[in-house]
Amino acid sequence: MEQKTESASEYLSTVPSGNVSVMFLDDSVDPVVLCDKHPEFTEVQIVDSRYKGTEIVDLYLKMKPDAVFVNLQKARNDCIYALGKIRELNCGTKIIAF
Question: What strand order describes the sheet that includes 67-70?
């Protein structure tokens, strides 16, 4: 099954204001800056991309975010593993790489 690729701005333009939960897989994201720039983020979880893959998947299953943002330049093998597992779950979550 082929998935459509879209940019973060394309995705965010389709989300009703104030109705999106997001997970960031990065070790340098500033949640305060994100929330100031994107008031549509109602729930933000920053997950250090150095976590084990299974820990990332467990956090994902607890939060069930609308979107997962991942910094591929800093992603480690565990992070890539977790993204694969999240895609397998096929819960409709958007995965946006930057």
Answer: 41-47, 20-25, 67-70, 94-97
Query: Which of 22, 59, 24 is closest to 40 using CA atoms?
Result: 22
Tokens representing 96? 């946006």
What tokens does 48 get?
A: 């250090």
SS3 29: coil
pLDDT: is 72 or 58 the higher one? Answer: 58
Instruction: Give dist(CA 41, CA 15) in Å, integer.
Output: 10
Q: Which domains does the chain have, with CATH numbers?
A: 20-97 (3.40.50.2300)
Tell me, what amino acid is at 81? Y
> What's the one-letter identity of residue 89?
L
How is 46-70 classified by DSSP, letter by letter? Answer: EE-TTS-HHHHHHHHHHH--SEEEE
- Residues 13-70 have pLDDT tens digits of 666 566 678 888 876 766 556 666 776 677 776 676 667 888 889 989 988 888 888 8
